[in-house]
Amino acid sequence: MTTEKTNPQNIAFANSKQGESKKELNQKTSVEFSVSVVLGVLLIIVLAATAYFGLVR
Q1: What is the C-alpha to C-alpha distance for residues 35 and 54, in angstroms, rounded to an integer?
Q2: Which of 3, 19, 30, 42 stands 20 to 30 A from 49 (CA)?
Q3: Where are the domains of the chain?
């Protein structure tokens, strides 16, 4: 049994559509990260507000 070494760049390219440039992949990843951060912050704010008003014990 042999294992093949892979690096993150090869994995990202293999998972992407053919013809998608590295710049497009970076931009898509940036947008996904930004959306995740915004949703996470909103969730924390909602949980803090509900705890403050006593809806969550």
Answers
A1: 28
A2: 30
A3: 23-57
Token duo for residue 30? 């940036």
Q: How far apart are CA 37 and CA 21, in angstroms?
A: 25
Q: What is the pTM of this model?
A: 0.55
Question: How many secondary structure helices (H) and strands (E) does the chain include?
Answer: 2, 0
Determine contact, residues 6/15, Cβ cutoff 8 Å.
no
Which amino acid does the sequence have at 57?
R
Q: Give the pLDDT band of residue 11 (cuts 50, 70, 90).
A: low
Residue 26 corresponds to which tokens in the numbers above? 């970076």
